From TrEMBL:
Family in the record: Belongs to the GTP cyclohydrolase I type 2/NIF3 family.
UniProt name for this protein: GTP cyclohydrolase 1 type 2 homolog
SUPFAM superfamilies xref list: NIF3 (NGG1p interacting factor 3)-like
Organism (species): Isoptericola haloaureus
Keyword Metal-binding: yes
Keywords linked to the UniProt accession: Metal-binding
UniProt signal peptide: none
Quaternary state and interactors: Homohexamer.
Amino acid sequence: MNAAPPTLADVVSVLEDLYPPSTAEGWDAVGLVAGDPSRPVRKVLFAVDPVADVVAEAVDWGADLVVTHHPLFLRGVHSVAATTFKGAVVHRLLTAGCGLYVAHTNADSAPRGVADALADLVGLTDRRPLVAHVEDVDRGLGRVGRLDHPTTLREFAERVAQVLPATAQGVRVAGDLDAPVSTAAVVGGSGDSLFDAVRATAADVYVTADLRHHPASELRERAAFESPDPERPQAGTPSLVDVAHFASEWPWLAYAAADLATGLGDGTVTTKVSTLVTDPWTHRLGSPER
């Protein structure tokens, strides 16, 4: 006799063991967004963004639950009518009998979460959280550690470009491409607010996303100005490797899918990682030669 599938409540219980909602940032909106906890779950789709194309993929596949990294409702709304684009997402899910669950900053900081998945891909060993949670030194934002083998900034950036999903942005680099690199810090998603934490670790390079002009310029300028070695001001200034936000977080989906299957343990749930590129940028035009 085949085992009965778990309920949505059972699946949520495993997800919240993996990514406790209490570890999310105070401004975040995580957890079950839509769905009946008593319904059975046989198929779970994992994706970065709860956008219409992902919902269409889930419905076409017959998913009972979509787990996304980014919230659908990060700010309060007054309506989920299908006349709004977010309301239409909820209606299509519920009409198809599919729930929606969000693991955001609680997945960023978790063991085998977003930060660990990114750290694994770029080759970080002997690593620790960049900013640890007070109550759990193994859980926290970002990771910092040694590279599995020393290299140059150019070779490291090429590795990052190779292992992450292809996007229109690709990889941007700030620093001397021939500089030696043996230690690195990584933060999935937007990470310019953590630049000083990276400096404090003396990491050679910082991999993150959404780096803006003024923070990138001013923080590197300040780091060089404050360098203890005036003859080598760049020695205390981390090089930057800026990737697409979507690309930096997508690797976690495979970990989440595997860990949910392990946590449920009965083999009755099929998981799938969406390969749709939901990065909003679709093209990049290089500057013409002059």
